[in-house]
C-alpha cells in the first residue's frame, strides 16, 4: 500500500554519485557526511542554493514519502483536500494507532477505539481510498514499526506527522517529524522547506556487551546533551561500533533521538540493515543498497579522524525528564 517500487529506488540510487558530485562542487566540500548525502540528493533543482550555511540556509527538498498517524492525519488531509488534486503527489500512508488507549487488552482496546472514533476512522479510510493513500486500520500496527518494516529504505527522505518519525533513521533514512501543514504541502506536490540542520557526529567503537542494550547508547547521549542539545541538529552515528547494533536496535536509538530535541538521527547503511531488509521481504532493495553502499554512508574522509568514542553503561530511564537516568547496578 503506497510503497515505492524497487525500480524507482534503483533509478534513484543510480543517480546518487552524480548528485553527490554536484553538491561537492557547488558547495566546495571535498567530502560529505551521510546526512548531507541524503539531504543534498533530495534538493529541488530549481531552488538549488549557491551555498549552504548550517543553521541558516533554508533547503527546498522533495521527500520520498509522507506518513501520518490518526490523531494528526485529520487536519493534514483536510488541508490537502483544498489543493483539489485527484491523488497525492508522493506515496503517503495513514496509520490508526494513536487513538487506541491501552487499558484492558489488545482486542478490547481496539474495539473500544473503533466505537469511540468511528467517525474519524471512516473519514480517514474514505479519504485514503479517494486520494491513493495507504490505510492501516486500527490494530494493524504502530506507525513507526510499520514504516520501518514496509516503507523505509536506505538513503531516502521522509516526513511524518509524529515526533518519533526519526525511527526510520535506523534504516539509514532521514526521517523528520513535521506538522500537518508540511505534510499537506508535500502531498499536494510542493517542496518542503527546512533550515539546514547542524550536525552532531557520534563515533561508536567496540560492541555492546553484558547488560548493555541499544537504548543505553541514547540514554547516555541524552545525559550528555540534555533534552535541548539536539535542537535544529541531525545526530549522525558512524564508526565500527554501528555494525554491532541490529537494525531494530538502531531504530530504537534514532527513535529516542527525539528526546534530545534533534531534527532527526541516522545510521549508515551496513550488513545489519541488508539482513533486516531481506527478513522483511525486501530482497531487491537490499541488493540495490549493497550495490550502491558507498553512496549510503559518509565519505571516508569524514570519518578518518573521529574525536572520541562513545562509551556507556546499562541505565534505567526516568519518565520525566527524558534525560534523567539511573545507573543500573546488580
Low-confidence stretches: 306-320
Q: Mean pLDDT, as a whole number?
A: 91
State the fourth-level CATH superfamily: Aconitase, domain 3
Query: Which CATH architecture would you pick?
Result: 2-Layer Sandwich
Share of helical residues: 25-40%
Distance between the termini: 47 Å
Principal-axis shape: globular
Alpha carbon gyration radius: 20 Å
* Strand percent estimate: 5-15%
How many beta-strand segments?
Answer: 12
Count of structural domains: 1
Instruction: Supply the CATH class.
Output: Alpha Beta
From the structure above, extract its key features.
38% helix, 330 residues, three-stranded parallel beta sheet, globular, 12 strands, five-stranded parallel beta sheet, alpha/beta, Aconitase, domain 3
Task: Give the helices and strands, then pairings.
Layout: H1 6-14, H2 16-27, H3 34-40, E1 58-61, E2 65-69, H4 70-81, E3 92-95, H5 106-116, H6 118-131, E4 134-136, H7 143-151, E5 157-160, E6 174-177, H8 180-187, E7 192-195, E8 198-203, H9 214-225, E9 233-238, H10 247-256, E10 264-266, H11 271-279, H12 283-291, H13 300-303, E11 315-317, E12 325-327
Parallel strand pairs: 2-3, 2-5, 3-4, 5-6, 8-9, 9-10
Antiparallel strand pairs: 1-7, 11-12
Helix pairs in contact: 1-12, 4-6, 4-8, 9-10, 11-12
Your description of this structure?
This protein is α/β, with parallel strands linked by helices and 330 residues long. It has one domain: Aconitase, domain 3 (2-Layer Sandwich). It contains 13 helices and twelve strands. Helix 11 runs antiparallel to helix 12. The longest helix is centred in the middle third of the chain and has 14 residues.
